[in-house]
Design goal:
It is a single chain. The protein has two domains: 5-57 and 218-386; 59-207, Beta Polymerase, domain 2 (2-Layer Sandwich), CATH 3.30.460. Helix content is 40%, strand content 13%. It contains 13 helices and twelve strands. It has 420 residues and is an alpha+beta fold. The strands form three sheets. Strands 1, 2, 3, 4, 5, 7 and 8 form a seven-stranded mixed β-sheet that branches. Helix 9 packs antiparallel against helix 10.
Length: 420
C-alpha cells in the first residue's frame, strides 16, 4: 500500500464510518456456490449500465450544444482580432471530465469553456479590461457577466454555455504576481491559468485542464476486477486551438466516472423529490473532488472490487469522511490549485453542509433499499426508482407504475438556519 495523502484520508474515513448498513447488506446477498458470483449481480450490472446510458445527455442535444460551442469559439477568435496562436479555447467542468448528465426535469445542462489567451502576444495587462473585451466579443448572444465568466443563454435550447476568460499563469506581468489569489499546486502545474476575479478585480489561479487530467488519470486506474464486465478502450481526442467537447458516452468499466454520474443523478432526484432546494444542493465540483480523492486513495491502497455496486457503496460511505477540518473550517481542497477550498461557502452558510449530510444519508438509505431487494424483479425496479429512470432497458421490464413517484424511506429535515 502506498502511503499517500488520499490513502491516509481514506483510512481516516474508514475509521469514522459508523453506518455499516451497506456492508452488511452486501454480505447478506446470496452467492452462487459454483461461480462465487452473487446470483442477481449480473442483472444489477446490466441495470447500472442501462441507467448510465439513460442519464447520458441526449446525443442530438449534445451535438447541437457542441456545434454552438464551436460557433461561439470561432466568432470569439474572429472578433478579438488576436493572433491565432495567442488564443486557445477548451472545454472545462462536467463536459471535459465526461461526467455531464441530463436533468431529470426541464432544467438545462451547461457546457463550460475556458478562453486561454497568451497575453505576452497581445495588450491585455489589466484583468478587468481583458474580461470586458471577451464580453464585448460575445455581444451577439447578449451574455450576462458572472464573477469569473460570461454566460450565454440560448432560446429553445436545453443548455447554456459559460466562457471563462483566462491567461496562462506564467504570462502574468511580474508586478501582478504578488497579488494573485492562490498558487498552483505541484500537480499539473504546467496547465495552470489565471482567471479574472471580478469582485476583487484581480487575477486568480485556476487549473480546469489540470483538474480534468487528474480525474482522467485516476479513472484509468483499475480497481474493479470482474468477469461480468468487458473493458472498452477509451479513444484519445486530438487537440487544436479550439478543442472539441469530449463525447459523453462512458462504459460501465469506467467506474469512477460512473460513480460520479450516478451520485450527481441521485442528488438531482433528491431535489426533484423535495428533500432540499435546488440552490442548496451539493455542487458538482464537490462531488467530483471527494469521489476522485476517495478513488485515488483506494487505488493507492491497492483496493479491489468484484462488482460496481461494491465500489459505489464504499464511495458513498467514505465520501463524507474525506472532508478535512483545517483550523476549525471545513476544507475540500482543489488538488490542482493550492489553498483553494471548494467548501469555503460551508463555513459561512452552515445550511449547505447540513444539506450535504442530509443527502449522504438519503444516498445510504437508497443504496440499502436496492441491496435489500428480495428478488431480481424488485431489485431492478428499486434501482430504477432510486435513480428516477422510467425508460431504461435492462434485464427486467419496468412495472406498470412507471416508477415515476417514489416515497422516501424516511423524512430528512434540514435545519432552516435562516434560509428557506
Amino acid at each position: 500500500m502506498t502511503n499517500t495523502k488520499y490513502a491516509t484520508l481514506v483510512e481516516v474515513a474508514k475509521g469514522q464510518r459508523k453506518d455499516r448498513r451497506l456492508n452488511l447488506a452486501l454480505e447478506a446477498i446470496a452467492f452462487d456456490s459454483s461461480s462465487g458470483i452473487p446470483i442477481s449481480w449480473q442483472s444489477l450490472a446490466e441495470e447500472l449500465d442501462a441507467i448510465n446510458r439513460h442519464i447520458t445527455v441526449n446525443a442530438d442535444d449534445f451535438e447541437e450544444a457542441a456545434s454552438d460551442y464551436n460557433h461561439i469559439a470561432e466568432r470569439l477568435v474572429e472578433k478579438l482580432h488576436w493572433p491565432n496562436d495567442a488564443i486557445r479555447i477548451i472545454p472545462q467542468g462536467s463536459s471535459s471530465t465526461k461526467t455531464l448528465i441530463r436533468m431529470p426535469g426541464p432544467g438545462k445542462f451547461d457546457i463550460d469553456a475556458v478562453c486561454a489567451v497568451d497575453i505576452s502576444k497581445i495588450e491585455a495587462k489589466d484583468p478587468i479590461v481583458f474580461f470586458e473585451k471577451i464580453g464585448e466579443a460575445l455581444e451577439d448572444w447578449l451574455p450576462s457577466a458572472k464573477k469569473r465568466c460570461w454566460c450565454v443563454e440560448f432560446t429553445n435550447r436545453r443548455y447554456y454555455i459559460e466562457f471563462t476568460p483566462s491567461v496562462p499563469l506564467n504570462t502574468i506581468p511580474a508586478q501582478a504576481v504578488a497579488s494573485i489569489c492562490y498558487r498552483p499546486s505541484d500537480r499539473y502545474s504546467d496547465t495552470a491559468l489565471a482567471v479574472v476575479d471580478t469582485p476583487t478585480r484581480r487575477w486568480k489561479t485556476s487549473n480546469p485542464e489540470g483538474f480534468s487530467n487528474w480525474v482522467s488519470d485516476q479513472a484509468k486506474r483499475i480497481i474493479l476486477v470482474s468477469l461480468l464486465l468487458e473493458k472498452r478502450a477509451m479513444e484519445a481526442l486530438a487537440s487544436d486551438s479550439v478543442a472539441p467537447v469530449p463525447e459523453q458516452q462512458v462504459p460501465l468499466s469506467d467506474t469512477l466516472r460512473i460513480a460520479i454520474r450516478l451520485l450527481k443523478r441521485h442528488r438531482d432526484m433528491s431535489v426533484q423529490r423535495g428533500y432540499f432546494e435546488a440552490e442548496l444542493k451539493p455542487i458538482s465540483v464537490i462531488i467530483v473532488t471527494l469521489l476522485t480523492q476517495c478513488y485515488e486513495g483506494l487505488a493507492d491502497q491497492n483496493a479491489r472490487y468484484s462488482h460496481p455496486i461494491e465500489l459505489l457503496a464504499d464511495l458513498a460511505q467514505l465520501m463524507p469522511g474525506m472532508i478535512e477540518i483545517r483550523n476549525g473550517d471545513y476544507w475540500i481542497e482543489n488538488p490542482t490549485v493550492a489553498e483553494e477550498n471548494f467548501a469555503e461557502k460551508w463555513n459561512t452558510n452552515h445550511t449547505l453542509k447540513d444539506v450535504f449530510d442530509n443527502w449522504c444519508e438519503l444516498l445510504i438509505d437508497d443504496l440499502q433499499s436496492i441491496l435489500s431487494s428480495t428478488d431480481e424483479r424488485s431489485l431492478c425496479e428499486n434501482i430504477r426508482s432510486v435513480f428516477g429512470c422510467t425508460a431504461v432497458t435492462g434485464s427486467v421490464p419496468p412495472s406498470s407504475s412507471g416508477l415515476a413517484s417514489r416515497a422516501p424511506n424516511r423524512v430528512h429535515n434540514v435545519p432552516a438556519r435562516g434560509l428557506a
